[in-house]
Amino acid sequence: MASFLQSLPTILSFHWLIIINIGFISSNQIPPKVQPYVVYMGSSSSNDVEVAKLAHLQLLSSIIPSEESERINLIHQYSHAFKGFSAMLTEKEASALSEDGEVVSVFQDPILKLHTTRSWDFLEPPPPPHPTTTSSSTTHHNNLSTEDVIIGIIDTGIWPESQSFKDPGFGEIPSRWKGVCMESHDFKKSNCNRKLIGARYYHTTSTASSNSSKTTTGGGSPRDPIGHGTHVAATAAGAHVTNVSYYGLARGTARGGSPSSRIASYKACSEDGCPGSTILMAIEDAIKDGVDMISISIGMSAIFQEDFLSDPIAIGAFHADQMGVMVVCSAGNDGPDPSTVVNTAPWVFTVAASSIDREFKSTVLLGNAKTFQGSGIHFSNLSSSKTYPLAFGKDVAARLTPLSEARSCYPGSLDPEKVKGKIIVCMDDDPTIPRRIRKLVVEDAKAKGLILVNGDEKGVPFDSGIFAFAQVDNRVASQIINYINSTKNPTATILPTVDAVKYNPAPVIAYFSSRGPGQLTDNIIKPDITAPGVAILAAVVPNRDRTVVPIGQKPSEYATRSGTSMACPHVTGAAAFIRSVHHQWTSSMIKSALMTTATVYNNLGKPMTNNTGNYANPHEMGVGEISPLKALNPGLVFETTTEDYFKFLCYYGYSEKTIRSVTNKNFNCPNNSNDKLISNINYPSISISNLDRHIAGVRSIRRTVTNVGSPNATYIARVHAPSGLLVKVIPEKIAFSESIKKVSFKVAFYSKQEASSGYKFGSITWLDGLHSVRMVFAVNVE
User: Fold this and answer.
1) What is the CATH number of the domain that holds 37?
2) What residues does the Peptidase S8/S53 domain cover (predicted)?
3) In the annotation, is 528 catalytic?
4) Which of 44, 80, 141, 155 is catalytic?
5) CB 350 within 8 Å of CB 510
6) pLDDT reported for residue 18
7) How does DSSP classify residue 176?
8) Which of 631, 630, 579 is nearest to 262 (CA)?
């Protein structure tokens, strides 16, 4: 290796001589485009960073022309949990590298996107004591010590001054922690403490220049300029902070799911997104630093999903799992369309979003004294004492603007002279234009307020700052428009927002929450589980923009946010809570405990619904909503082992050579591997992508459960199957003892010929008189 570096100048000089002899490239020839690529080389077998770096540089020098020697440079290098690097390459160079025997995959560095209080009280009403329940499971986790659990948050950084990250009462930082608190112009080591124990940021490479690598610092600081990472961290593990509100709304005590856990922040994202190579670097560092679990509220595009060996999160999470680190990810915000869920690898815990029992009401008062309930958050000074002219968007259209655009308040579609001083009604029937844009269109035209018509998004309150806003459904809108058309001088006002708790039904699956089945494999149910993700109150970066801060108020340090980004840290916090009690449980045991104890009922005692009011199915909610206290004592767990994941890769279609590189083990694939066998890995749910109703036969699925409850226990299976689908559990009774900790069973599925086609959903529940272990299934009948 050393000889290679010593000879590098000579090699470069030699290549320059060749260039001089053959002449220069024509000035009108377009040079190949250079972009950042990730070169993934599988599992790491050595922690010698320098040796790995030299090997990677040598590999680059073999394919990059010597006249471009400045590109023989590593943007990021991975060598601890996995090996590889990112670098600036042309498409041809990337293709050449992919042919190298040591390389598993080469892919263009993707830009991933961010998926963006009372929620914990809603999830965890104090349970009644049970005489046979252990004391740890009846103690509310506020009183449990979880300070030895370290959560890594990969996001936009952190705002360390927030009260949610203060450390009174915390003991010494665990000795296994090897991380750092990086300093910058606006972030000091003293910003870290016994709660916020680590903070990193990364240099990233811009793709703006096609023939040069432009390195930026992503802010050059661990500090969060956006607030997304701060909100996520506080939701997962924020300390107790009393008397918190968002300008008087959602008042109460703010806390995370595991308030005593430590936080380590990894700033891998900016407002422009999150480079995949940087996310990989953050996962690598988090594992090396000593975190117990990683929370990632980020994902690939639902439209352009790559396979698992071209997905940075899937790659990093795989190696994290191999090293005992749990990875929890958001499912994405591309719902309600099917097959939009992302982060679908089985070794990732994938989270959908639901509402809680709190509503933000923004009431519309018409000039005829009729009132209508809308939703939204605003802090305007409008009141019931004065009304303003009311107009439909199409009636205040700009000259030569199509009325169809004006009714929807497209940018440039309204006449400011006609809009000024009025409250405008706009239709939100084009999903490509977000509510924020329509609000700006009306506000910039000097309107007094906006009434937006959109039933789908009503359950997700929009924050319009100090500009009056209400969102209503089509039923209410028709009455408002009838009033406009039947009145010579229609007027209205929008009353200040108020919040209401114990709203029902709740939870409801959020309209934006991405749905399954997964595009990459529908033999695993994704998302896995649901958690609160609508109007979640948590710490943010105080907004210094006076145009959005209510008059006379200071910038709020807490605010509401919605998205699967907010649901993900709820599950991370719950998982940290469970790990703090069950130190020896693996990630898959914790995942199983949360999945098999999840609830599918709302606060009315009825089955959970989606945003349309229909019953939610597993492709929308996974197994249901998390119940962290119940998960402390699940009775049985499904342990998904590393060998299960190796088999998954075989069944998915990867070669044994590739799998051995990824796992660093001499693993042999089962004979006749195919994707249907994915259904057989020991997962806490079952999915079958194709059950032919025209061919007589039974599809049999095998599972193994591990007893983590009373040593002597007998469970009986109860099947809940839809019509047209016969489901039998063999055996129907399983027994455990001091010597028998694991028991296997089979589930046989058979479809009647008269059954309709499509997915059928049901469940199998194991009962012992104390525990209820519920496993959901999804079967596609064709």
Assistant:
1) 3.30.70.80
2) 148-609
3) no
4) 155
5) no
6) 33
7) T
8) 579
The active-site residue, picked from 228, 319, 570, 771, is 228
Residues 416 and 291 in one domain: no
Separation in Å, CA 174 to CA 170, 194, 289, 324: 11, 9, 11, 17
Query: Is 462 part of any domain?
Result: yes
Are 473 and 456 contained in the same domain?
A: yes
| CATH code (residue 228) | 3.40.50.200
Q: Which of 50, 78, 109 is the last residue of a domain?
A: 109
- For range 62-84, the mean pLDDT: 90
485 within domain boundaries: yes
For the ranges 109-123, 296-310, 560-574, 692-706, the lowest mean pLDDT is seen at 109-123
- Co-location of 333 and 376 in the same domain: no
Look at the pTM and tell me if it is higher than 0.85: yes
Domain membership flag for residue 507: no
User: Catalytic: 109?
Assistant: no
Rounded to 5°, angle at Cα 277 from 276 and 283:
90
Cβ atoms of residues 500 and 375 within 8 Å: no
pLDDT classification of 755: cutoffs 50, 70, 90:
confident
User: What was the pLDDT predicted at 492?
Assistant: 97
CA distance 37 to 137: 48
Let me know whether 334 and 424 are in one domain: no
Is residue 428 among the annotated active site residues?
A: no
Q: Which residues pair with 114 in a beta bridge?
A: 298
The C-alpha angle with vertex 672 and arms to 669 and 675, in degrees rounded to 5, equals 85
Q: What angle do CA 389, 390, 395 make, to 5 degrees?
A: 115
Q: Is the residue at 133 inside a domain?
A: no
Q: Alpha-carbon distance 473 to 456, whole Å?
A: 8
By three-state DSSP, how is residue 303 classified? Answer: coil
Decide which of 501, 534, 550 is a domain's last residue. Answer: 501
Respond yes or no on whether the N-terminal peptide bond of residue 411 is cis (omega within 30° of 0).
no
CB atoms within 10 A of CB 613: 8
The parent domain of residue 95 ranges over: 2-109
Q: Retrieve residue 539's tokens.
A: 């710490």
Cis before 532? omega within 30: no
Are 340 and 499 in contact, with CB atoms under 8 Å apart? no
Confidence of residue 442 (pLDDT cuts 50, 70, 90): very high
Per the structure block, which two tokens stand in for 82? Answer: 């996995």
Are 88 and 222 part of one and the same domain? no
Q: Contact 572/293 with Cβ under 8 angstroms?
A: yes
The neighbouring-strand residues paired with 151 are: 263, 293
Query: Is residue 143's pLDDT more than 60?
Result: no
**Residue 451 is part of a domain; what is its CATH number?**
3.50.30.30
Q: Determine which one of 79, 86, 565, 751 is catalytic.
A: 565
Q: Which residues pair with 205 in a beta bridge?
A: 215
- Domains of the chain: total: 4
Q: How far apart are the first and last CA of the chain?
A: 58
pLDDT confidence of residue 204: 64
Residue partners of 584: CB distance under 8 A and separation at least 6: none
Residues 375 and 317 in one domain: no
pLDDT digits (tens, 9 = 90+) for 645-699: 999 999 999 999 999 999 988 889 998 899 999 999 999 999 999 998 887 778 9
Do 433 and 569 fall within a single domain? no
Residues 432 and 492 in one domain: yes
Average pLDDT for the chain: 89
